[in-house]
Amino acid sequence: MSSVYEQIGGEPAMAAAVELFYRKVLGDDRISHFFEDVDMERQAAKQKAFLTLVTGGPATYSGKDMRAGHKHLVQRGLNDMHFDAVAGHLKETLEELGVPAELVGKVMAVAEGARADVLNR
Amino acid sequence: MAKVKHEAAWYPLEPGETVLDGLLRQGVNVSHSCRAGACQSCMMRAVEGVVPPAAQVGLKDTLRVRNYFLACACRLPDGQALEVAGVGELRVPARIASLTPLSRDVLSVRLETEGALDYRAGQYVTLLRAEGLARSYSLASLPRERTLELHVRLIPGGAMSGWLATEAKPGDRVELQGPAGDCFYVPGQPEAPLLLAGTGTGLAPLYGIARDALEAGHTGPLHLFHGAREPGGLYLVDALRELAARHPNLHYRPCVLGGGGGEVEEGALEDLVRACLPKRPTGWRAFLCGNAEGVLSLRKKLFLAGFSLKDIHADAFLPSTPRVEPVSGAA
Fold first, then answer.
1. Which residue of chain A is at minimal alpha-carbon distance from B293?
2. Can you list the alpha helix ranges (DSSP code H) found in chain A?
3. End-to-end CA distance of chain B
4. pLDDT at B123
5. CATH for B2-86?
6. Closest-CA distance of chain A to residue B2, Å
7. At how many degrees (to 10) do helices B203-215 and B237-246 cross?
8. How does pLDDT run across B250-274, given as a tens digit for each residue?
9. Closest Cα to residue B32, out of B225, B318, B251, B259?
10. Which of A9, B56, B205, B328 could make an S-S bridge to A13, C-beta 3.0–4.6 Å?
11. Would the keyword Metal-binding turn up in this protein's UniProt record (chain A) (predicted)?
12. pLDDT in tens, B47-104
């Protein structure tokens, strides 16, 4: 069966989703400080890699990268509350793009599976 | 230990030291200004050896494939050797054509180049003096004009601006390197609303971009905001009012933090800009220039307000940051 990534439209859908998603996390005072970056394009590229990963697209990122990539953020206090906030924005983004509930559920299950790696547990 | 060869001599680098810092430390005169990989004043060419990719970020592909790199962003892995050369071949000789004050602390510097310098209105160049002093300035002129125009802010104790303000005279020879930067107007979608916002000499590129867009037949509204602390910091006010009178789609909005009145609005640039945006700024394009902190903050606000990142062209001006060196004797 094809991945959620393919079912929702592949790379062009990710390009549309990433700005929506990045705008939500950057506009959320609870978590925006984890996403501040002088180079906004680079930060957007990271978000796109994350969206591609959780939708089962061509993997550019592994669980190990996820762990290493968030280690310094965990040291700065990244915790479950922040993870839940980001997950909430992910869900809203997909819903706003009209992704069917069933596929949204699949993506959220994958995202949940990344929790331990992201929080370095 | 990594090492660099420059003009037949080898120079060792400390661990983690950039090629620029290593050469300067050992007395080699290398042009440089921002030391942050932006101004490109410290560009060099690798004749032999491997250039780390980080040292080529922001360079045009045509320069990259010819092994040009930025010395301030070049850190060599331990044990590596790099043989470098200057970039004299990329520099264009020029003469100062005129020096005209635009306000109390902004000087218009017009330059006549010997040979072509192909640029887009809004890009920036590095101005170099014979002994290597280098500073980057945005271009306020249009490519069709006979001279290049820079707006130079007079900085107390500034090496280049001080020289331009007090010693330089028409006819003096300098060199130019560049252009660089991607804050410029690209024709297409002539009806799109354009937002141009800048503080201080951030007006220079915006003045070029606005005129470039108007001459290219842009029909959509151009909202040009120029911010200053007080009215004395604004310049080209009459020229822009006159330009706006000739082009009804150009909305010139000078603003100050204090002492405004008449046609000069009072308030924070960011607030005035946001007040002019529709709820959904679909199709808008933005050009932001000037003070780095202001540019980065406004870019974020515009993105959150619905601008697409690809539609925000930002040019954050970085100050020149000299090495801290022991001062020998009184200046």
1. A38
2. 4-7, 10-26, 40-54, 63-75, 80-96, 101-113, 115-118
3. 36
4. 95
5. 3.10.20.30
6. 28
7. 20
8. 999 999 999 998 899 999 999 999 9
9. B318
10. A9
11. yes
12. 999 999 999 988 888 889 889 999 999 999 999 999 999 888 889 999 999 999 999 9
**Residue in chain A lying closest to B316 (CA):** A38
Dihedral, CA atoms, B155, B161, B166, B167, nearest 10 degrees?
A: 150
Token pair for B235: 């310049």
- Token pair 């930025």 in the structure block, residue: B70
**Tokens coding B183:** 């804050």
Residues 6+ apart with CB under 8 A from B231: B256, B259, B260, B264
Q: Region of B173 please: left (phi>0), alpha (psi -120 to 50) or beta.
A: beta
With CB atoms and an 8 Å threshold, state whether B300 touches A44. no
Phi, psi of B248 (to 5 degrees): -60, -20
- Where in chain B are the domains? 2-86, 91-180, 194-317
Q: How far apart are CA B308 and CA B320, in angstroms?
A: 31
How many angstroms separate the CA of residue A90 from the nearest CA in chain B?
16
Measured CA to CA, the distance from residue B42 to residue B38 in angstroms comes to: 10
Flag if A19 and B309 touch (Cβ within 8 Å): yes
The C-alpha angle B126, B270, A36, rounded to 5 degrees, equals 75
Which distant-in-sequence residues (6+ apart) come within 8 Å of B95 by Cβ? B111, B112, B114, B170, B171, B172, B173, B174
How far, CA to CA in Å, does B6 sit from each of B9, B24, B90, B141, B196?
5, 12, 18, 36, 43
Considering the segment(s) B91-180 as one domain, its CATH architecture is Beta Barrel (2.40)
In this structure, the number of other CB atoms found within 10 A of the CB of residue B218 comes to: 23
DSSP string, B83-146: EEE--GGGEEEEEEEEEEEEETTEEEEEEEESS-----TT-EEEEE-TT--EEEEEB-S-TTSS
CATH number belonging to domain A4-118: 1.10.490.10
Spell out the domain ranges in chain A.
4-118
User: Which residues of chain B are under the pLDDT cut of 50?
Assistant: 324-331
Query: Are the CB atoms for B57 and B16 separated by under 8 Å?
Result: no
Write down the ipTM of this complex: 0.86
* Number of other CB atoms surrounding residue B181 within 10 Å: 23
Query: What residues of chain B, 284 to 313, have a C-beta less than 8 Å from chain A?
Result: 296, 299-300, 303-304, 306, 308-309
Topology of the domain covering B194-317? Rossmann fold (3.40.50)
The residue type of B272 is L
